[in-house]
Write a structure and sequence with these properties.
By secondary structure, the protein is mainly beta. It has no helices and nine strands.
């Protein structure tokens, strides 16, 4: 069974240089243990840890492939640690998940930005 973990950060968007002209969107994992957001005009995803020991991931769809999503992991467990995806086509859907070993991950709802 494939495990997928998503981490979305809402509050961090302003802290990573999202300009008012770019319409970044973001999400928190359940209990706000992690978060993720888009940056660089929605071409890159960032995933941030908010709770010590948390391992999380951000799942996201790009305009180029609506049949499968990408996953950006942040397994650091270190508060305020941020990982970044590569830049690519525009991100249109995003969610954040807390990784739960040997169980279903705890994921937020999908945030759509079309």
């Amino acid at each position: 069974m494939k495990k997928t973990i998503v981490g979305l950060v809402v509050a961090g968007a302003a802290l990573v240089g999202a300009s008012p002209a770019s319409a970044a969107f973001e999400s928190y994992s359940p209990s706000a243990k992690a978060g993720s957001w888009t940056q660089k005009n929605d071409t890159q995803v960032a995933a941030k840890i908010h709770s010590r020991g948390t391992k999380a991931h951000a799942d996201y769809y790009r305009t180029t492939d609506s049949s499968s999503y990408y996953t950006l992991w942040n397994k650091s467990g270190i508060v305020n640690n941020v990982t970044h995806s590569g830049a690519g086509n525009r991100v249109v859907d995003l969610r954040t998940c807390n990784w739960v070993p040997d169980n279903d991950d705890e994921c937020s709802r999908w945030e759509a930005h079309h």
